[in-house]
Amino acid sequence: MVPAVSTTTARACANIALVKYWGKRDARLNLPAAGSLSLTLDALVTTTQVTFDPALADDELVLDGAPARPGELARTRAFLDLVRAAAAITTRARVVSKNEFPTASGLASSASGYAALAVAAAGAAGIALGPRALSILARQGSGSAARSLFGGFVRMHAGRADDGSDAFAEPLGSPLTTRVRMVIAVVGGGAPKTHGSRDAMEHTAATSPLYRAWLELVPRDLAAAEAALAAGDLAQLGAITEGNALAMHASALAARPAVVYWQPATLAALAEVRALRAGGHVAWATMDAGPHVKVLTTADDATGVAAAMRKVPGVTEVSISAAGGPATIVAAGAP
Ligand code: DP6
Questions:
Q1: Which of 21, 148, 214 to mutate to test the pocket of ligand 1 (most atoms within 8 A of CB)?
Q2: What's the rounded Cα separation, in Å, for the pair 190 and 177?
Q3: Atom of ligand 1 nearest to the CA of 288
Q4: How many whole angstroms from 112 Cα to the centroid of ligand 1?
Q5: pLDDT means per 10 residues in the chain (335 residues)?
């Protein structure tokens, strides 16, 4: 039992995978089937305050100023149960979380959300966890959240242990960290409700004839991407990034029934990225579980790339991110 009310606020940046996580080896502990590699982004931030309060009868979750839906609350409650078990407490918590994302972007916030929640909840519960333990904790909320504990380029390890003790992320230094930018082109307008990444990756693993090939590809792409990062070779990193995203989507497209995230504007944006490259710009595309296109580019090229993406019909909003920093505690103590 936490004797008194205890509050911690943490912030974490979202990340975009350059080599994707798409499939699990264990759903209960949320262990990835393969490793992944991401870039943490400074423009996509979640700030989360966790307050353990003996007066609360149940956990509460407020997301962007509104009470969360029952499903979101249940997932947060299950995550808080992990923290309570580690801290040997039973106190309920109030969680207030706010996303600073491009407006109405529909971009996934579970990575920054569970990273900020892990840091804030561990802090408020009074358990001192190092970065690796926090990454393992965040992974149990959302696989991509394990990477958002760290800044810059981040490598997630699939691990082999049944208990998940070796499935964590760690930062990768690179001469490219300060040079890269990510241009986020939001594809909006009449979007049908898409499949959440959790269900869609499970469905792909269960039904796609291309899933096995996907799992064989990932270690090769990871090794090549790490070599490119070490050498500061952005053209090589970009080529792997775009190829890996297309391969992930190919595996999902081949699932039965198909998981199709793309809209016409997605394909138009991808064509624009190829045209930018043909015109001598640094521009490589990646896409996640939605129609939006994210373009890996440089600080020098970002403004031109963003201007070109703004002209693509169906692209409703464009923003530029630099590499973001690690998840941090921003306030602690009594509320
Ligand atoms: C396409 O991390 O959302 O963004 O672990 O089930 O919560 P869960 O999945 P999640 O999946 C992210 C999928 C992706 C690729 C990536 O970020 O690596």
A1: 21
A2: 36
A3: 1
A4: 11
A5: 83 98 97 98 96 98 94 96 98 96 70 98 97 98 98 98 98 98 87 80 98 98 98 98 98 98 96 98 96 97 98 96 98 73
